[in-house]
Amino acid sequence: MLMSLALFGCMSEQSKLRILRLTSLFANPPIWIAVDDWDAGPGELYELEEKNGVYRMAYQSTDHNDLENDLEKKYYPVKISGTPFAQETDAEGLLIKNQTHYKYGFETTFDKWTITLIDPNIEPISSQRPNGDYWKINDTGMLEIWSSGAVVETIPNMLLIFIMVSQFEMDEYVESHGGKWHYIDDRGEVLQAQQFVDQVLSGMRNHLALYKDNVRPVWECAEGHQWDAHMKDVRKNNWCPTCFDIETGTDTGGME
What is the spatial distance between Cα 245 and Cα 252, in angstroms, rounded to a whole number? Predict the structure, then answer.
């Protein structure tokens, strides 16, 4: 069973709220959400954890009727293998020793990961799906379940879900006002929506950047006025502050 992010556009507001509430319970990637019924909300969580180089997969089934009191996690030891990341060389062409490489929030020697249960004969982690022969984190941060040399299911990354649902709502809001938007970071670099997603999934940027003011949405109205503000403030202030100032005869400037 393959899952598609295209389903976000068809999700009900209740489903979106369920997912957004759930994301607030976790801090670190990577976490994946297996959803069998989008209207019912998240069903199962898979979370890769690491401590002192030892990895384990945490599994948790979610009660759709009580998201704030999730069922107890189960832990399964796993080993990580894969393709080593390409190290950079110094001015003399020598490999840089002890070069730090982060992937999905972890320091690792691997660029492409294969995750295998240490005990392959363990009972299925989930009653809804088999363990498969091994799992892979693909280039978009999704968890792929592989069996007999083929992908049998792809489970979305929770951070990707959270960001894309947020961006979907921002797109809808901006379109309804005839404007456009992008991100800007603390160095003034412009980031398009997909660029920010890529940076979060690659570990280049902390996924809490949006809440630490390291990355902020910049909005532009149909008249070309720009300002930066979080989505909740844009909704509260009813779109463009410059246009509002012109209408009310005040002079507070457009860029916040």
Answer: 7
CB burial readout 2-40, b (16+ within 10 A) else e: ebebeebeebeeebbebbeebbeeeebbbbbbbbeebee
What proportion of the chain, given as a percentage, has pLDDT over 90?
19
Q: How many CA atoms lie within 13 A of 55 on its CB side?
A: 18
The pair of three-digit structure tokens given for residue 42, joined into one six-digit string: 């998240």
Burial class for 150, CB neighbours closer than 10 Å (0-12, 13-18, 19+): exposed
**Distance between CA 105 and CA 93 in Å, rounded?**
28
- Spatial strand order in the sheet of 215-220: 190-191, 180-185, 215-220, 226-228
pTM of the model: 0.58
The yes-or-no verdict on residue 133 having pLDDT over 90 is: yes
If we measure between CA atoms, which residue out of 224, 239, 204 comes closest to residue 104? 204
**C-alpha 190: how far from chain center:** 19
Opening angle at CA 138, ends 97 and 5, nearest 5: 140
SS3 103: strand
pLDDT above 70 for 240: yes
Model confidence pLDDT, tens digit, residues 183-234: 998 888 999 888 887 776 666 776 667 767 788 899 999 999 999 888 888 8
